[in-house]
Amino acid sequence: MTSHPSPWGFFASTRWTVVLTAGRSDTARAQTALAELCQTYWYPLYAYVRHHGHSPHDAQDLTQAFFARLLEKNSLAGITREGGKFRSFLLAALNRFLVDEWRKTQSAKRGGGRVVSLDADDAETRFAREPVDSRTPEKLFEQNWALALLDAVYARLQREYEQAGKGELFRALKFCLTGARSAVPYAELAARLGLTEGAVKTLVHRLRQRYRELLREEVAHSVASREEVEEELNSLFRALAGT
């Protein structure tokens, strides 16, 4: 990817930039990229609709109807690079849909089929676990977006280790991805894994380093330029901190 002639470099092939650049000329590719993004980030939108007072059933219908509208071929032509971050674009598009489109289409769209694999039981279980919060639905959307991103990164990292035949190692070290370095019991881990403390420290360092790489890559999939990665990371960390 680094040899790609495009001035966007790596970003020429991230999911959001594929949508931005291929929406008019290669709708099939753009739709696939957009569907992958929507599949990762469906829950923050569902929770956002619920925080606006809709029942679980109506929130499911609204979320599915929104994705149906968004993934229609003719909708891609209206997406421009000025749309910026996928997160911002998606929230603005959802707000427009809730205000302008749902009243017109609710009778036709209700029960109109599934376009994204939305686990309704899981959605309500997750929503019920959310503490009562005085923050706005927009702030809660940002927090849920950050959590969905971290879940996606964790799942990718786990798959990498399992595919490399290191699933057991991942399960032993995964808790090292959170908390302070000083809290990692290297001696205990070394004894459990039959390794030296130095070897365990190296393994933990590699795990964390790969996690950071995947985190940046996942963020890059939802922004339009390299310069926006750091900005988006900072925004997501602030959202997780509740600020």
What does this structure look like?
The protein has one domain. The two termini are 36 Å apart. By secondary structure, it is an all-alpha fold. Mean pLDDT is 84; it is low at 1-8. The protein is built from 11 helices and no strands. α1 packs antiparallel against α2. The longest helix has 27 residues, at 137-163. 67% of the residues lie in helices and 0% in strands.
Short summary:
By secondary structure, the chain is mostly helical. It has one domain. The protein has helices spanning 15-22, 27-40, 42-51, 56-70, 86-109, 120-129, 137-163, 167-173, 186-193, 197-220, 227-241.
In terms of DSSP E residues, the strand content is under 5%
Q: How much helicity do the residues have?
A: 55-70%
Instruction: Outline the biggest β-sheet.
Output: none
Q: For the CA atoms, what is the radius of gyration?
A: 20 Å
Number of separate strands: 0
Overall domain count: 1
The average pLDDT value, as a whole number, equals: 84
Judged by helices, strands and strand pairing, the structural class is: mainly alpha
Counted by DSSP, the helix tally is 11
Distance between the termini: 36 Å
N-to-C order of helices and strands: HHHHHHHHHHH
Shape: globular
Low-confidence stretches: 1-8
